[in-house]
Amino acid sequence: MTNLLVTGGAGFIGSNFVQYTVKHKPEYHVTVIDKLTYAGNRANLESVNDRIEFIEGDICNAELMDRLVAKNDIIVHFAAESHNDNSLRNPWPFVETNIVGTYTILEAVRKYDKRLHHISTDEVFGDLELDDPNRFTESTPYNPSSPYSSTKASSDMLVRAWMRSFGVKATISNCSNNYGPYQHIEKFIPRQITNILSGIKPKLYGTGEQVRDWIHVDDHNAAVHIILEKGTLGETYIIGADNDHVNNKMVIEQICELMGKGKDWYEHVNDRPGHDQRYAMDSSKLRRELGWQPRYTDNQTGMHDGLLQTIDWYRTHEDWWRPQKEAVEAAYAKQGQ
Ligand code: NAD
Ligand code: TDX
User: Fold this and answer.
1) What are the structural domains, with CATH classification, of the chain?
2) Rounded (5°) CA angle 314-319-323
3) Of all protein residues, whose CA lies closest to atom 15 belonging to ligand 2?
4) Which listed residue (34, 107, 123, 213) is catalytic?
5) Which pLDDT value is given to residue 301?
6) Residues of the chain with pLDDT under 70
7) What confidence score (pLDDT) does residue 299 get?
8) Which residues are in the NAD(P)-binding domain (predicted)?
9) pLDDT digits over 304-318, tens only?
10) Is-contact 35 41, C-beta < 8 A?
11) Residue to probe by mutation, ligand 1, list 18, 20, 37, most atoms within 8 Å of CB
């Protein structure tokens, strides 16, 4: 058995990763460490409760991380403050968790000589102009725009420095926007689905021309497992599903249609300050060297099946999201969003 420590395993991508691991990778014994912030939910791990160990705690707690890292072989680090709009309201938790938390993990990993995989994002590269056909690669210079993305960029830099200066055994992946079950309803896609389920019109920031290179969460997590199995230490891998022709307006229209509303049953609201225009990922290294392929690649937006599955999940899990809906919408309403 390989002992696997998953930080942030009660959040959106982390909890999908833990469920995927328990289902498909029986060679791992999984321990989750999660602070259970507003974004973490113990219920996300209900289906695997008897197969994993769960520790409620903060990755900034050096004594705790020391103890947990010492007991495990591999650490997959998802824990983060993850929402751009929140980072514009209050950046401090982003600095603390994303930078100090990653530093704390790196020090423990260095001390016990363990293997780390660090989960990062496309946002560290900044954005592209809408008409720029280029894509981000592993060697694109960092140029983050928001408090969120700048703290993620900082954490990547720390990992790179610890690999080079101390020989820490790590890999990094930068993935594009994820969607799927268990995503917090503050985020774009689940916000619109739960709006429609609540009789509220979906809210599109600004013109909706912005492009996100959407990927289903299971495709992201399958890539992380391939990197754990076959990745080269010291390397960074870009993960993306080639959806960089899909803008926010197209996504919202598709959700409206799939949920039986007219294509235009949404409204424009205030734009996000400093809104990144376009993300596009070149994942050819991961595909070529490690043989990864996304599974959700159907029709012209590449999201039809994944969106249907996600809509169905929110439809059948109203008890999971309903308690948060009013407060999330009230916070957005204050900003005219
Ligand atoms: P999320 O906000 O849904 O989950 C984050 C989890 O981390 C929560 O369970 C939360 O309780 C936990 N956490 C926060 N602070 C903590 C702390 N100090 N100690 C311990 N646990 C803490 O986020 P997500 O969308 O699942 O993102 C997970 C990771 O993937 C993040 O590192 C994010 O930057 C990265 N990422 C996300 C996306 C995306 O589209 N969501 C895309 C690329 C990369
Ligand atoms: O109600 C909305 N209306 C809207 O038009 C919301 C919440 C968002 N948007 C737009 C803003 C973005 O262009 O949709 C796009 C996606 O927004 P988010 O879901 O907030 O994602 P984004 O800011 O792109 O960041 C996400 O992808 C990269 C994750 O939240 C990050 O954690 C990840 O690193």
Assistant:
1) 2-179+213-239 (3.40.50.720)
2) 105
3) 188
4) 123
5) 65
6) 298-301
7) 57
8) 5-297
9) 999 999 999 999 999
10) no
11) 37
